[in-house]
Design brief:
Layout: H1 10-71, H2 75-81, H3 87-115, H4 125-140, H5 142-150, H6 154-178, H7 183-205, H8 219-287, H9 293-319, H10 321-329, H11 337-354, H12 357-362, H13 366-386, H14 392-418, H15 422-449, H16 456-475, H17 480-489, H18 495-501
């Protein structure tokens, strides 16, 4: 997987960069569309069916989504990363995912009556059966979805996913909820979304499954890579969910609720910020024949831009955690502010870290990220145990510390791969640090000299100051290494982006 490949032709590099930028544009278009539909559909469904019925569906969704992570075996990423794939390999991967997912999800449904009492107390077989069907349909689409990602065909992929979401949640889910379907409204929404998006991805990719035939020998290498990806995904899942499990068992349901609400408040925008970049970076890096200067410039540029945005947003949230909680959730959630501040800082480090892993995957070096993630799991586990006596707030602070260390370690691994000095990445993060520092300074001054401004109104002022600092940093505080990287990517950026960044 680490073999030295030939240097690509300049025209191939140019074409790949153009396709990657186009793919990034369509990825963000699809994400924005789903955000709008999510606000309309999920809020509407939740209001119509109520928290109890909604909770029944979510209780079945969690184990099926974890099962999906396991049963996919990392083979979708293997297809995207493989230098060459042929029809025999694709058919072999499809048959393996189909067999494993069918057996695994049937076993989950059969075991649910015994598992549910330890999870929610009641086994609703209609919910678990419906969610398992939706998960199976998503797993069936592993190969066509991977082919669309491999070809950087994100316009077709986003059309399939967004269309499925519209038919599933906006049409089916709201209609069933309005008709009094209860938890079946949410289950039906997932099934219809999975069915329609799967059909659309098969049509868009041109893949047609065929049964019979021996497994291609080359598939074994893809399987080995898939297992590394699976282990890495599980380690990532452990880092993200270990604090919630820890806090729920040690500090009770109330503390767990405060932690999850604070975590989701800052994690959701982080996901929207980096998901499109991850989706494009992985296949674009895999399709490149070798590490190129354009790849180095792109990584430095994205690190600079992400840090400016993420540090401005999340340090502002951390600085004004108390008035934000009071504004959004009311006085009953006041204690959540002590959790929101460190979790917001953790997300500031999460964003630049999240774009580094796909680069390692694309070059066939997923094991390097796996080592870092396993170390993070171990460190976080030890830290949470040591923080138990300090309460839930101490545990949240350790989440932020581990996030910072994880970012540095994964960035260093990517810097070694791309042959970029880590000092250059530190320069790239400097403008973001200036923006975040501006937000903290405004909060400190407001709290000391004008306590009345330490409020929701003050947070808006802080956000405006951080935004101005971000624009100044984008236009003026551009270190020389970053300026050189910007020169390297200027020709691939849309005109409006070049105008905003003054490139």
């Amino acid at each position: 997987m680490e073999a030295v490949l030939h240097e690509p032709r300049p025209e191939h590099e140019q074409s790949l960069a153009t396709k990657a930028v186009a793919g990034l544009k369509w990825s963000y278009v699809g994400i924005v569309a789903r955000i709008v539909m999510q606000l309309a559909a999920q809020v509407g469904i939740a209001r119509l069916i109520g928290p109890d019925q909604y909770g029944i569906a979510v209780a079945a969704l969690v184990p099926t989504m974890f099962a999906t992570l396991l049963l996919e075996l990392g083979l979708g990423s293997s297809i995207v990363q493989a230098p060459h794939v042929d029809a025999a390999q694709l058919q072999a991967v499809f048959r393996r995912v189909l067999a494993v997912s069918s057996i695994g999800l049937v076993l989950l449904v059969a075991a649910w009556p015994g598992l549910a009492p330890h999870w929610t107390g009641t086994a609703h077989m209609g919910a678990i059966a419906g969610m398992a069907l939706a998960a199976w349909l998503q797993l069936v689409a592993t190969v066509p979805q991977a082919l669309l990602r491999r070809d950087l065909a994100f316009k077709r992929l986003q059309a399939a996913q967004s269309g499925g979401y519209f038919l599933g949640f906006v049409v089916t889910g709201l209609l069933l909820a309005w008709l009094g379907g209860g938890y079946l409204a949410l289950v039906g929404a997932w099934v219809v979304m999975a069915l329609t998006s799967t059909i659309a991805m098969f049509a868009a990719s041109g893949f047609r499954p065929r049964f019979g035939g021996a497994e291609a020998a080359q598939t074994r290498e893809m399987t080995r890579f898939g297992y590394v990806v699976l282990a890495t995904n599980l380690a990532n899942w452990a880092v993200d969910n270990m604090p919630a499990v820890f806090m729920g068992r040690l500090f009770g349901a109330s503390s767990l609720g405060r932690y999850m609400v604070a975590y989701n408040l800052v994690r959701t925008p982080t996901n929207h910020m980096v998901t499109a970049l991850q989706q494009v970076t992985f296949p674009a890096t895999a399709r490149a024949a070798a590490v190129t200067q354009s790849m180095r410039d792109g990584y430095v540029f994205i690190t600079w831009l992400l840090c400016v945005v993420a540090f401005s947003v999340f340090f502002s949230v951390a600085a004004f955690a108390e008035p934000i909680v009071a504004l959004l959730y009311g006085p009953a959630w006041h204690a959540m502010a002590a959790l929101l501040a460190p979790l917001a800082i953790a997300m500031a480090f999460q964003a630049p870290m999240a774009i580094s892993g796909p680069i390692l995957w694309g070059r066939g070096l997923a094991r390097r990220e796996l080592r870092v993630q396993l170390l993070a799991v171990l460190a976080l586990g030890v830290a949470l145990v040591l923080a138990a006596g300090g309460g839930i707030e101490a545990a949240a602070r350790w989440v932020a510390i581990v996030a910072a260390v994880r970012m540095v370690l994964i960035q260093r691994a990517v810097a070694q791969l791309l042959k970029v000095r880590y000092g250059v990445l530190m320069w790239a993060m400097l403008p973001g640090a200036v923006c975040g520092g501006s937000a903290l300074l405004v909060a400190a001054l407001a709290g000391h000299y004008a306590p009345g401004w330490y409020s929701a109104r003050g947070w808006l002022v802080c956000a405006a100051v951080a935004g101005c600092a971000a624009l100044i940093a984008m236009r003026m505080l551009v270190p020389t290494p970053v300026a050189q990287a910007c020169d390297g990517v200027r020709g691939h950026l849309p005109r409006v982006v070049r105008r905003v960044l003054k490139l």
